[in-house]
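## retry 2 of 3
previous attempt timed out at serialization; input unchanged, resubmitting
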Amino acid sequence: MKNSKITITKAGVYVVSGKLDNGQIIVDVQDKGTVRLVLNGVQINCADNAPIYLKNAGKTIISLQEGTENIISDGTKYVLSDASTDEPNAAIFSKDNLTINGTGKLTVYGNYNNGITSKDDLKITGGNIRIYSADDGIMGRDIVAVKEGSITVESKGDAIKSTNDTDTTSKGYVALEGGTFDIKAGKDGIHGKTSVLITGGEYTISSGGGSANGVTKISDDRQGPWGKNQQNTAIAKTTEEESNSAKAIKATADVAISGGTFKIDSADDAIHSNNSVTIAGGDITITSGDDGIHADSAILAKGGKINITKSYEGIESAVVTISEGEIHVTASDDGINIAGGNDGSSMNGRPGQNNINSTSNNRLNIDGGYLAVNSMGDGLDANGSIYMTKGTVVVSGPTANNNGALDYDGTFEMTGGFLIAAGSLGMAQAPSEQSTQNSIIMTYPQTQQAGTIVNLKDSKGNTLATFAPKKNYQTVVISSPELKKNSVYTLYSGGSSSGNENDGLYTDGEYKNGTKIVDFTISNSVTWLNESGVTTSRSSHPGTGRTGGPNNPEFGGNQNRLEKGRPSY
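## retry succeeded, writing output
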């Protein structure tokens, strides 16, 4: 030991215990061997540098001895031997591979900058680890991998982060297989410079102070019949390198989740990728101040349970595919928004727009699963087309006439599955006429109160649908494999049901005491109804199923604008 500095120069196993005040443990092994540090009840503080500095070794293993408590802390200012570098910059700093294992406790106070940093791989296979950091909590350049353990991070910067952006094939990712995580991050919770891969574990994540700290947005507060999207409003787009990013889980390339339990409260997007997001399993609860799930290119949901209890837009990407799983979305703007390009929903207050045009590549695919949307903006908003082959979709909202429960610019081809969507009248759409499965759209002369049941029966009195929308409504769209051409049906309103209710949709049970609204016969793939019976489509653009948009007198009369290509609401 020299000047309270302990320097290890040879590979081997070293057991450390006791208190070292204003000192350091330095590992400097020139032959690149493996050093194992067993922390057996230590308290190490260094006022002006990293208390544990793994300067040179092939690999270092820090083992937390069972039943021990270990505390590592640094000061707020470092005195570095080389003024041209900012390293070391963490209370535990490694320039090579670092593994942490064991069952003991480790508390790290990174008062200067980061808590634990590795310039190579950082792996955690056990331990009870608590980190408090002035900037990032846990950082690995090439890999941050956790197999098990209990990890608590309170950071002013990112909580868990990988940084390698030069090798996008095998480095710069965060891989989490298990463990328990309690994260409170001033910025991003989990940030993979390339990818984030999660297969298991329990996660409680708060980023940016949580959803209550999200940027206040003006949700579709449109001016005139086409709203603020008509105005080419200039908005300064922020990039993913911005310093104020406060997303819960973020990656530049891909986010893939196949297991785990998540409770997320984020000021910014809860789950975000500059490329793609895949959800194949897990139980995910999201409260977001911005998007619930956003990917610039594609989102695939093929399993698990997603419950977005609060969001600006629930799910947003250029292509969204739902094949399995259960999804619940509550949104103050669009429930599902199909819009290509960079995220536009956290841009300095974002006045209700993404500034993104529709393209033929934008699409929403529903090939199975269960999707329930409760939205103030559009329920399903496709700046392109919608294709539904299987599954169940339930939509409540919007209530304002400048939005619609269904909103698409291309086609909505309905070939299977069950769809029921209740919303406002002004911009209402039904599936496209080229659909092979039949649909109906009922328009009421007055707004119906939330909770007022819609019941559809066939000529034998069998119930096809019983639905109590969660919001006020003036239109209802129903599409079901049971709707047959040249068959007679009856639509009822009000009454009650003894069935099991979920998202307003009743299953089983008995419907009674309703008022008959209309009898009708299906003769086309899309049947438009009012209280007098079958009527002609209100669409001013055949094939789109739209009620007329600005041509609707409710929007100020004739404005001969093309629907296709208009920006997203």
